[in-house]
Write a sequence for this structure.
């Protein structure tokens, strides 16, 4: 018989486990926490959409649409694309579901996104984003709130120190047209110095030359005119309101006049949170205002602003969370005690206490495993009774099954100093296990 070939993980995908998974979960939990504090609603949108949803909203000339999308005809010959980001799908849903009635709508979501890129550290083909959007608010206060939310998330993750908010304005339509004309004129006079990519950009998307990473483009990009001279009074007021709001909220920012979004419907605020700790993968969170997007998708003219961040990149920056450990390990002393051991475990868990079972091994083996798992207590189960042993102090005393959920449960939580029956961010390691 032919040998079965070992299956391979698809290039650019990840199997996330152990410390990596705890980092991942920490980011998602912190995001969920700030979502509640800022009173955003959660939303779920499909993993795939009709290709046109992304092509129209992200633009045919963008890197994502032109090179990175996973696009395929399904069995009914509809052309579908695995989402490379969330904003387009959320805006499509806003139109399809008639969510105008709820505007202004503050939404968050998270999950896998897909881009066909060259995999490297911090860059995958299936990665994960958290995403926050405010749809139906044209006020600069919406931009301020979204950025303050992002800033608080980074603080909760303990990484705001090494991460800088870079901010720019793209102005309103009038500003943008005038600036764009000036940029085309400037780059035309530097044609000879530009990279091939930027010569194409000059035709299709001249703003993008400004943030080109090709060193050949940098002199022309750096000497290009800033938007400031072209800002209308309205556009300047908007930007001042955003920066003033950030200052008032204590959110640090720096101006990056070279930060752009290529597409016409991006207006006013554009921003990135950047670190130098992840090499070339330095942008951890990026977004901006997209007032023309929903109209461009065929919906009613609706302002919007939002951002997305890579969960993996945030997780790499954050400190590794503690191992999770049980409060109680169940240790049956012999086979006859199995039934009572099962009943005790169920009772403790129903009382909200994280309880570990080992499935196999003699009493000594199971004790060793309880120690290794850093359980706070061992519940030693004999066929005719129970004993609770504090594994930190070694103290042991008999208890009754009837007392398990109530008295013993309360005592376990009190003695361990936990806020609840399982590990939480504020919990310290049990005494006797520190520094191991
Ligand atoms: P980059 O310049 O790194 O390619 P981008 O501009 O394509 O980023 P966005 O489309 O703004 O990124 O996506 C928002 C965030 O998603 C990024 O700031 C980053 O944290 C994360 N991200 C983007 N692409 C990847 C990827 N291939 N793997 C992991 N994370 C990614
Ligand atoms: Mg990219």
């Amino acid at each position: 018989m032919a040998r079965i070939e070992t299956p391979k993980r698809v290039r650019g995908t990840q199997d996330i486990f152990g410390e990596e998974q705890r980092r991942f979960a920490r980011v998602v939990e912190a995001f969920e926490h700030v979502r509640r504090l800022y009173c955003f609603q959660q939303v779920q949108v499909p993993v795939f959409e009709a290709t046109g949803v992304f092509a129209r909203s992200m633009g045919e000339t963008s890197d994502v649409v032109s090179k990175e999308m996973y696009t395929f005809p399904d069995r009914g010959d509809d052309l579908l694309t695995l989402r490379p980001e969330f904003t387009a799908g959320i805006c499509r849903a806003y139109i399809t579901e008639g969510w105008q009635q709820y505007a202004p709508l503050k939404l968050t979501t998270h999950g896998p996104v897909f881009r066909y890129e060259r995999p490297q550290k911090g860059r995958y083909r299936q990665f994960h984003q958290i995403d926050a959007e405010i749809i139906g608010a044209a006020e600069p206060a919406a931009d301020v709130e979204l950025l303050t939310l992002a800033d608080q998330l980074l603080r909760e993750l303990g990484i705001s120190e090494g991460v800088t908010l870079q901010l720019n304005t793209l102005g309103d339509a009038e500003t943008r047209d005038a600036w764009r004309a000036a940029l085309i004129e400037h780059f035309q006079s530097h044609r000879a110095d530009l990279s091939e990519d930027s010569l194409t950009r000059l035709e299709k998307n001249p703003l993008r030359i400004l943030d080109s990473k090709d060193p050949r483009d940098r002199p022309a990009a750096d000497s290009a005119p800033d938007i400031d001279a072209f800002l209308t009074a309205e556009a300047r007021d908007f930007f001042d309101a955003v920066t003033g709001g950030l200052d008032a909220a204590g959110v640090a920012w720096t101006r990056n006049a070279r930060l752009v979004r290529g597409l016409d419907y991006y207006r006013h605020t554009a921003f990135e949170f950047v670190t130098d700790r992840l090499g070339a993968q330095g942008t951890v969170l990026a977004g901006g205002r997209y007032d023309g997007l929903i109209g461009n998708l065929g919906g009613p003219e609706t302002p919007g602003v939002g951002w997305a961040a890579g969960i993996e990149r945030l997780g790499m920056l954050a400190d590794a969370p503690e191992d999770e450990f049980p409060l109680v390990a169940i240790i049956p002393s012999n086979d006859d005690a199995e039934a009572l051991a099962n009943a005790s475990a169920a009772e403790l868990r129903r009382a909200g206490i994280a309880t570990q079972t080992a499935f196999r091994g003699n009493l000594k083996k199971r004790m060793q495993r309880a120690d290794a798992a850093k359980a706070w207590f061992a519940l030693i189960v004999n066929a005719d009774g129970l004993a609770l042993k504090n594994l930190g102090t070694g103290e042991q005393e008999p208890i009754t099954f009837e007392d398990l959920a109530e008295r013993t449960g309360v005592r376990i939580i009190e003695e361990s100093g936990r806020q609840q029956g399982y590990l939480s961010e504020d919990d310290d390691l049990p005494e006797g296990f520190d520094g191991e």
User: Anything to note?
Assistant: The chain has two domains: 19-172+232-317, 328-420. The mean pLDDT is 92.
